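Service request form, structural biology core

Requester: graduate student, group of Dr. S.
Request type: structure prediction, single chain
Budget code: on file
Notes: please return the result as C-alpha cells.

Sequence provided:
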Amino acid sequence: MEANLHFCFCSNSKNKMRKMRKFENMPINNFRPFLSSVPESIPPYDHQEARLFIEFGQKHFACFVVQNITNTIIEYEVYQLDVPFSEPELLDFFKNHQFDKNDFSAVVIIHNTKEFVLIPSELHKIHLEKTTIETIHGDLTELELLNDNLSKWEMTNVFGVHKSQFQLINELFPSASHLHINSIYLKAIFKQLMEMQEEWVKLYFYPSYFNVVVIKDTQVQIMQSFYYETPEDVIYFLLSLTEQFNLDVTTLVMQISGLIEKDSITYKELTKYFLNIELESDDTTRFLINDEDPTPSHYFTPLFLSAQCV
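Core staff response, request fulfilled:
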C-alpha cells in the first residue's frame, strides 16, 4: 500500500517555511516533508561526530541529525502519513538520503507506537512479554518484542515493533539502538519531578492523535495514545482521565507540546476546562541555521526530546 502524504504545514499561512531539500533522485512516491529544515548551505560535517535519530509514529515519520558535542540540530524532516511507509518506500527513503552509507557515531530508532506496556521491574519476566503484549493489544500483528529498562522509575517498558519493519531497519542499521517514545517521555519527566506539582498532565500532539502522561504524587498514573477527530474528542478523553484518577482541574498543571496551534479550537477548548495550561518548549534546542523561523518552538519539543535523553 502506498503512503499518502498531507502537504499541510501546521502554522499560519503567512509564515514562511524552512527550506526543503531539493532531491536529485526523488523517492518513488515523490513525497515531501510538511516540516523540514535541510539547509542547502550547510558545510559538510563529520558524520562520525553526529547522531542520526529516526522516529516511526502511528501517523508520522521523522528523522533528524544532531551534532554530538554541541547537541545542535543539523537537519530534520517530518512526514505526515495516512498509512505507514511500505518496505520499498522506506528502503528508497534511506538510500535516497544516503543514511545507509554514512557512518554516524550512533543511530537511534524511536518507536512511537501504541503496542507497549509498563511493568514494575521486579515483576518483569522476559518469557511473559509476548503473552502480556498480546493480552492487552491482541495478536493480529506479528511483533518483534523489545524492552527499555527505566531504572529510575523502577519499571520496564515492553513494546512491540512490526517484525518486517524491524528486520529491514536491522539490515540497514545493525548497530542501531531502539527506544520507545514513552521511555523518552519518562526520562525527560524524571528530570522535572522536583519542580512538579502534585498533579501533572503532559500532552504531546501528533497528526490525528496525542500521547498523554498523567503524574500524581510523583507516580505515573497512565500513559496512553488517543486518536481524535474533533476538539470535543480531546476534551472528553481528558475529562474522563481526571475523573478516573480523581484529578483537580483547577490545580493540576497541563503542559502541551507538539502539533497544536495556540489559536486552534482544540487549544481554546482546553483552556475552558483546565486552568493551568502552558505550551512546553525546550529552550536548550539549538539549530545549525539560526534563521528567523516562525515555527512555534513547542512544535519541536516531543520530536527532539530523544536528543536530550540519549
